[in-house]
Amino acid sequence: MRLQDKVILITGSGSGIGKSTAQLFAREGAQVIVNDLDAAKGNETVSEITAAGGSAHFIQADVTQPESVKQMVDEIIQLHGRIDVLFNNAGISGVGALHEVEPDVWDRIMSINIKGVYLPSKYVVHHMMDRKSGSIINMSSCVAEIGLARRASYAATKGAVLALTKAMQVDYASYGIRVNALVPGTIMTPFVENYLRTSYDDPEAAIASLKTRQLSNELGRPEDVAYAALFLASDESKFMMGSPFYIDGGATFG
Ligand code: NAD
User: Fold this and answer.
1) Does the keyword Repeat apply (predicted)?
2) How do residues 193-248 score in pLDDT, each as one tens digit?
3) Which residue of 28, 89, 128, 241 is 20 to 30 Å from 165, comparing CA positions?
4) Domain count, the chain
5) What's the CATH code of the domain at 117?
6) What is the ipTM of this complex?
7) Would residue 172 show up in a list of annotated catalytic residues for this protein?
8) What would you report as the CA-atom Rg of the chain, rounded to the nearest whole angstrom?
């Protein structure tokens, strides 16, 4: 198994990409800590993993709140003694050109998508520094690199995640810690379904239009991203440092 006995924290793993990744990591032998703000969804992920014979437990925490994140990390260290992999996956979508975004909505997306990477990393990384080992995976998006209409706040957060990934890699490389980013294109999850439902009168036409922005005829599935995360979490990717990893059906190609 590719992740045998690794202790792995995945934020926002009650749904979508995080959930699919938690399930795959558990099948590969990891001890998965499922985090989410939503306890019902997080517990459901854990029940499904344990029913399939995997190892997982749920910790409810809000990735935007320092005390909440610190308590979660302390609890994991008490229970397992270490965290081998941190996957900063939790995130929300944001719609609108800059002038359409209200300040409180702007603050909320910045908080979840950027501070929500900073805080778990801050409290986990010094345990990794002590052990001189660890892999941190940050969730970006191809929207950071291609100009998509009415995604100003979201694009800003995901661009910041790419910059933060490089800055973190430089600071922690000498401690044996790798920091890489996932850069997905359109992946059909509740997050995207909700975005399509609330932003377009005709979601089917919107899906067809999204397909024209990539080379593949299919939109992505959560498992497509989970397999890339598996590589970054495993020791197989030990020579990958500070890199963006594209899983986008060719959306950023050319
Ligand atoms: P999703 O909505 O299905 O799952 C996100 C999870 O994060 C939810 O369970 C939610 O409860 C949780 N969450 C939200 N705020 C939280 C908080 N403050 N603390 C803890 N948990 C919180 O979304 P998804 O599509 O699986 O997206 C996961 C990540 O992938 C996001 O960062 C998103 O930006 C990124 N992404 C998604 C796509 C896509 O097409 N789906 C593309 C590129 C990047």
Assistant:
1) no
2) 888 888 889 999 999 999 999 999 999 999 999 999 999 999 999 999 999 999 99
3) 28
4) 1
5) 3.40.50.720
6) 0.99
7) no
8) 17
